[in-house]
Design goal:
It is a single chain. The protein is built from 3 helices and 4 strands. It has 110 residues and is α+β, with helices and mostly antiparallel strands. Helix 2 runs antiparallel to helix 3. The longest helix is centred in the C-terminal third of the chain and has 22 residues.
């Protein structure tokens, strides 16, 4: 006896299906159970600040104190690279200090 079975799946899921098979178990019907594995990798949750709760005045004040004026300090491409590295670090540091209150995980807003 030949058993023909069809399983429909979205194209995006097809490549994640493995070990598809018809089970030998008798379920007292013309149908048979099928078994398969869908491989899924769970994204690592990332926690982020909700910008609505950021103390922007504190952020602005601390960033201005750290960065100051660049005039006279940037003379070469290496100076520009150094200043940009420090600016990037300051932006992140002072945002983290100023972002108080609610946090959320990427993909959800709590």
């Amino acid at each position: 006896m030949t058993v023909i079975d069809v399983t429909l799946a979205l194209k995006a899921v097809m490549s994640k299906i493995s070990h598809w098979r018809v089970l030998p178990d008798d379920i007292f019907s013309d149908d048979r159970k099928i078994s398969f594995i869908i491989q899924h990798t769970k994204r690592q949750a990332t926690c982020c600040h909700n910008i609505k709760y950021t103390n922007w005045t504190r952020y602005d004040n601390e960033l201005h104190m750290k960065v100051g004026l660049w005039l006279g300090y940037v003379n070469t491409p290496a100076d520009i690279e150094q200043e940009l590295t420090e600016l990037d670090s300051a932006i992140i540091t002072f945002y983290d200090k100023s972002a108080v209150g609610k946090m959320y995980h990427v993909g959800t807003m709590n």
